[in-house]
TrEMBL record:
Its main location: membrane. The lineage of its organism: Bacteria, Pseudomonadati, Pseudomonadota, Gammaproteobacteria, Pasteurellales. It is a multi-pass membrane protein. GO terms for cellular component: plasma membrane. One of its GO terms (biological process) is amino acid transmembrane transport. This is Aromatic amino acid permease. Involved in transporting aromatic amino acids across the cytoplasmic membrane.
Length: 403
C-alpha cells in the first residue's frame, strides 16, 4: 500500500507540473467553459490510454521497458520506433521543464553579468540539484517527491485562497477570441496528463502488480483533473482575456504568468505564492519525467550490451535538455507543443497498436480495459488528429497560441 501511494503521488506529481503552468499561457484566449470541457475530454482520453499500458504489462516482466514491450508485438521495428518516439518526447518535456525552471530560478538570483548569463547559471543549478535524485534511483525520487508534492499542495491551496475571492463572473463567461484556438491548444493541454513515460518505472517499482498500477493511474490522474479545474477557475476568473494576452505577448514565459497575476491583482503576495507554486510544480513534473527518460536510456543501453553506469546515464539524460535551455531560454511553450505531438503517438497510437495484437494473442487476460474495439478506434482517430495539429498551425490553417 505504501508503494501504491507513492506511485499515485508520482503520477499526480508528474502530471501537475509544466503542462498545468502552461495552461493559462495557452488558454488565455479560449475562455473558462471551453477550457474545462477540453480538460475533461483529455483526462478521459489519456486515462483510457494509460490503462491500456496496464493491460499490456500483464504479459511481460515487471522491469520491461516500452521498447521491450513494443518488440514483443512488432519485432525490432517496433522497438526502434517506440524507443525513438519515447526518447524524443521525454527529451522535449525535460527540456521544457529545465527551461521553465531556469526562468523561475533566474528571477530569484542576483544578476550575474547580464540576464542571459544568470538564466544559464540558473539552468545548470536546477538541473544538477534535482538531477541527483534521478541518478540515485526511483526510491529517492519517491521520497523527495512526497515532500515536494505535499508542499506544492499547500501552496496551491494558498494560491486558490488568495485568487478565488478576486474571481469575477464576467471573466468566466468570456467566449473564445477564436474558436479554432481550442484545437490549437490541444497538443499543449495534452501534455498536462502526460505521465505515461513513467509507467515502466512505476510498474517495475510495484513489481508488476496490476491492481496497484491501475489504482495509481486512476487516482493519480483524477487528482490533477480537480486541481486543473480549480486552477482554471482562479486564473480565468481573475485575469481578463484582454489584459492577460497583452502581458503575455511581451513575455510568454512562466515569469509572464507571474507578472500578469501580480499586475492584474495588484498583490505582490499573490505573485509570490504563484511563483512558489510554479517552482514546486515544475520540480515534481521534472522528477517524474526525467525518471522515465533515465529508465528508457538504461533499457536501451542494456539492449545493446553497453555500460549502464548511473552517472553516465545521468549525463545522457540531462545534457541535451540543459543545452536546449541554455541556448533557447524562451522555449518552454515551444518544447511543450512539440512534446504534445510526440506524446500523442507514444501514449495513444502505440498502445492501441500493441493492444490490438495483445487481445488476439491473449484473449482471456485477467484485466482488460473496457470499451472493446470501438473505443480503440475512436481514441486512435483523436490521437492521430492531435499529432497533425502542429502541422496545421504551421501551414496557417489554425491560429497559433501565445508563445
Amino acid at each position: 500500500m505504501n508503494k501504491t501511494l507513492g506511485s499515485t503521488l508520482i503520477v499526480a506529481g508528474t502530471t501537475i507540473g509544466g503542462g498545468m503552468l502552461a495552461m493559462p499561457l495557452t488558454s488565455a484566449g479560449i475562455g473558462f467553459g471551453f477550457t474545462v470541457t477540453l480538460l475533461i475530454l483529455l483526462w478521459l482520453l489519456l486515462s483510457f490510454a494509460a490503462l491500456l499500458f496496464v493491460e499490456l504489462y500483464q504479459t511481460v516482466e515487471s522491469d520491461a521497458g516500452i521498447g521491450s514491450l513494443a518488440e514483443k508485438y512488432y519485432g525490432r521495428f517496433g522497438r526502434i520506433l517506440s524507443t525513438a518516439v519515447l526518447l524524443t518526447f521525454l527529451y522535449a518535456l525535460v527540456s521544457a521543464y529545465v527551461a521553465g525552471g531556469s526562468s523561475l530560478l533566474a528571477a530569484l538570483l542576483p544578476v550575474i553579468n547580464d540576464a542571459e548569463t544568470t538564466s544559464r547559471i540558473a539552468g545548470v543549478i536546477f538541473t544538477v540539484v534535482f538531477g541527483i535524485f534521478i541518478v540515485l534511483g526511483t526510491s529517492s525520487v519517491d521520497k523527495i517527491n512526497r515532500i515536494i508534492f505535499f508542499s506544492k499542495i499547500v501552496f496551491f491551496i494558498l494560491v486558490l485562497f488568495l485568487l478565488l475571492p478576486k474571481v469575477r463572473l464576467e471573466n468566466l463567461l468570456e467566449i473564445p477570441i477564436d474558436n479554432a484556438l481550442i484545437i490549437s491548444a490541444s497538443p499543449i493541454f495534452f501534455t498536462s496528463f502526460g505521465f505515461h513515460g513513467s509507467i515502466p518505472s512505476l510498474n517495475k517499482y510495484l513489481d508488476g502488480n496490476v491492481r496497484a498500477l491501475r489504482i495509481s493511474v486512476l487516482a493519480g490522474t483524477f487528482i490533477p483533473l480537480v486541481a486543473y479545474i480549480l486552477w482554471q477557475l482562479a486564473t480565468h476568473g481573475v485575469l481578463s482575456q484582454t489584459e492577460f494576452l497583452a502581458i503575455l505577448q511581451q513575455d510568454p514565459t512562466l515569469n509572464g504568468l507571474i507578472t500578469a497575476t501580480t499586475q492584474i491583482t495588484g498583490s505582490e503576495m499573490i505573485g509570490g505564492a504563484v511563483r512558489l507554486f510554479s517552482a514546486l510544480a515544475l520540480i515534481t513534473s521534472f522528477l517524474g519525467v526525467a525518471l522515465g527518460l533515465f529508465e528508457c536510456l538504461e533499457d536501451l543501453l542494456k539492449r545493446v550490451n553497453a555500460p549502464t553506469n548511473r552517472v553516465f546515464l545521468g549525463v545522457l539524460t540531462f545534457l541535451p535538455p540543459l543545452a536546449f535551455a541554455l541556448f533557447y531560454p524562451q522555449g518552454f511553450i515551444a518544447a511543450l507543443g512539440y512534446a504534445g505531438q510526440m506524446f500523442a503517438f507514444y501514449a495513444i497510437v502505440l498502445p492501441i497498436a500493441m493492444v490490438w495484437k495483445l487481445r488476439k494473442m491473449y484473449p482471456n487476460l485477467p484485466y482488460q480495459v473496457k470499451g472493446g474495439t470501438p473505443s480503440l478506434v475512436i481514441t486512435l482517430i483523436i490521437g492521430v488528429f492531435i499529432v497533425i495539429v502542429p502541422f496545421l498551425i504551421q501551414a496557417g490553417y489554425l491560429p497559433n497560441v501565445v508563445g
